[in-house]
Design goal:
isomerase; Cobalamin-dependent protein; eight-stranded parallel beta sheet; five-stranded parallel beta sheet; alpha/beta; Cbl-dep_enz_cat; Cobalamin-bd; cobalamin binding; 615 residues; 19 strands
Length: 615
């Protein structure tokens, strides 16, 4: 190893057993420690030539600045298939359309879901979840050797338990950048098997590695807090805390981006949102992503009208990068469909006149977002007086000790200062209730604002809505719910949970990423009468029968109603064939009593449970 990178070397030495487990789990050569105690096998920091191309996070810096000069966001399409060959072949469709349009892309290569799990402590979950969600660590390296990233810079998603190991693999492979989400971890603590503290601490290690090796980082995300019904100000507070860690890690702000949703419902609200972030964040770049929970038409052509609204907002707001969306109802799009989405999006960028909109609503809403964020930040950092934007400087963050800052973040999650209604972390307090008002803005219900934060600083809903009464348990039977496999998607199962609670049942909710056998065993311990499992990665036909098998081994199957949901295949056409099989043959091949796929009415699910328990 030629250059000295003391933080990276220290992390490798501390985590060598996990690194060995990563090497074994994913069949990739990783750095090691020689007989003298020195780190070997770590490539040079960026900039570094790989497969004939000099890679560096600063390739993305140049693209992000180019967007400001041209007034057109650089597109950030997502495409990652399970094998390198398939990823490369599908990517050619995107590269070809980019060539015709004369644009450069910032490609987001989506990784296999196994990457979210600690390879030392969660090997069994990794083994049972292979082949879903995107490219493998080995495929990541092969993809670059085939030519991936030669013209269009790359990033890989590295969120989860061991982000620091994933960024080491990305550095070896030749990816220019990554995304971490060290504070909120995509679904606020829910992706991976470890507790919130471990994830934040490992996210900080990943930031140190990125800083020393000049990797571009999508640091944190407003998008995923929006997904789990969090507010804009809450997301901003979390992004600011992530930036504090990034500054402590030594990251260059020219290598840092914040990911944001644009909803396209209220143009003024979207403009205010991005303006608020621009005025207060430290990161140089914004990656705008269209909101995906608005149920657009499930058709590639029809849904472009839906996404065109958001592409227009992203341009008007001056985003640096924009993620085109394609084939919304399919987990991983084809290269051809993504190429069409790129074409459509660029047409919006080229033909939308860039204007400055100065409606008073924008400034009012912008200040509302900033006030909320600063009030939450003040409580999280245990300050006595309300922090002001001008106080949030690099020097401010550097005044914290590393461990002190991590401790404050973790405690803020545990106390309910950082909160969102559908957060995934099992060790976080959940209290807030929110409502998306008719103007498209999500605000709190009165009396349900973040804990320990003065309500006077929080936006309160303007709609005439009241909090539903706390669920009253009126039924004697218990219902156990969980996702199985390496699946952290908890939005759908949260909706099912709420419907079942509303029907009067006590729900034991294990959230994301569980072994099928564990779910059955918890059912035995808790004496649950109903077990509901979900998997959105298309692995239900493999995983659901394992719940059934374990329940039979425990001699409980005759006493338990077992239902399942999610997707039975990643690709739409394959999932449809499973739905047809269920319609013709029933659900015996899944080992469950009923299956509720995408689009199911959650109240019907609760009604079905009621009927089954009466039998």
């Amino acid at each position: 190893m030629a250059s000295s990178r003391p933080k990276t070397e220290k992390i490798i030495k501390e985590e060598i057993e996990r690194i060995k487990a990563y090497e074994k789990a994913f069949d990739v050569k990783m750095p090691y420690i020689d007989e003298n105690g020195d780190v070997q096998g770590l490539p040079e920091a960026y900039p570094r030539e790989i497969n004939g191309v000099k890679r560096s996070g600063y390739r993305l810096t140049e693209l992000g600045r180019q967007a400001i000069e041209t007034g057109k966001p650089v597109q950030n399409p997502i495409l990652g298939r399970n094998s390198a060959q398939e990823t490369f072949e599908e990517s050619q469709h995107m590269y070809d359309i980019a060539e015709k349009l004369g644009i450069s892309l910032f490609q987001f290569v989506h990784s296999e879901a196994t990457r979210h799990i600690d390879p030392l402590d969660g090997l069994e979950l990794i083994e049972q979840s292979r082949g879903k969600g995107g490219i493998t660590p080995k495929g990541e390296r092969e993809f670059v050797k085939m030519g991936g990233g030669a013209k269009h810079p790359l990033r890989i998603n590295a969120t989860g338990d061991t982000t620091h190991l994933n960024v080491i693999n990305a550095l070896i492979a030749g990816f220019d950048g990554t995304d971490l989400g060290p504070v909120i971890h995509v679904h606020f603590g829910g992706r991976g098997i470890h507790d919130f503290r471990t994830k934040v601490a490992n996210g900080y290690k990943a930031l140190q590695i990125c800083a020393e090796n000049n990797m571009f980082v999508q640091l944190d995300t407003h998008k995923h807090i929006n997904n789990i019904m969090g507010t804009d100000g809450m997301a901003l507070a979390m992004c600011l805390l992530s930036e504090g860690l990034a500054i402590k890690a030594g990251l260059d702000r020219a290598l840092s981006a914040i990911q944001m949703n644009v909803g396209g419902i209220n143009v003024l609200a979207d403009l205010a949102l991005i303006k608020a972030y621009r005025e207060i964040i430290w990161s140089e770049f914004i990656v705008a992503v269209p909101e995906t929970f608005q149920n657009p038409p499930a058709d590639l052509i029809a849904e472009q009208a839906h996404f065109a609204r958001m592409a227009m907002t992203a341009k008007l707001a001056g985003a640096n990068f924009y993620r085109p969306k394609a084939a919304e109802n399919v987990g991983i799009p084809t290269g051809n469909s993504m190429a069409k989405a790129i074409w459509a999006t660029q047409d919006v960028f080229n033909n939308t006149y860039r204007m400055e909109i100065n409606d008073p609503f924008i400034n009012a809403r912008k200040e509302e977002i900033k006030t909320e964020a600063l009030a939450i930040l003040t409580a999280a950092l245990e300050r006595d007086t309300l922090l002001q934007p001008e106080e949030i400087t690099e020097e401010f963050w550097k005044s914290f000790d590393d461990k002190e800052l991590i401790d404050l973040i973790v405690e803020a999650g545990r106390k309910g200062i950082l909160d969102a209604p559908r957060a995934g972390g099992w060790d976080l307090k959940r209290f807030v209730k929110t409502n998306r008002d008719s103007d498209g803005i999500r605000r709190y219900l009165e009396g349900y604002t973040p804990c320990d934060v003065p309500q006077k600083h929080m936006p309160i809903t303007k709609d005439n809505v009241k909090a539903e009464k706390e669920y009253v348990v009126t039924k004697k039977e218990k219902v156990l719910l969980a996702t199985v496999g390496a699946d952290a998607h908890v939005v759908g199962i949260n909706m099912v949970k709420e419907a079942i609670q509303k029907a009067g049942y006590e729900v034991i909710f294990l959230r994301g990423m569980n072994l099928p056998e564990t779910v059955a065993e918890v059912a035995a311990e808790t004496k649950a009468s109903v077990v509901g499992v979900s998997n959105l990665l298309g692995m239900g036909s493999t995983l659901f029968p394992r719940v059934d098998k374990r329940l039979r081994e425990l001699k409980l199957r005759d006493d338990v109603v077992l239902l399942a949901g999610g997707r039975l295949a990643e690709k739409e056409e394959e999932h449809a064939s499973y739905e047809e099989k269920i319609a013709n043959e029933g659900t015996n091949f899944l080992g469950v009593d009923a299956f509720f796929g995408p689009g199911s009415d959650v109240t019907k699910c609760a009604e079905w449970i009621e009927e089954q328990l009466k039998k």
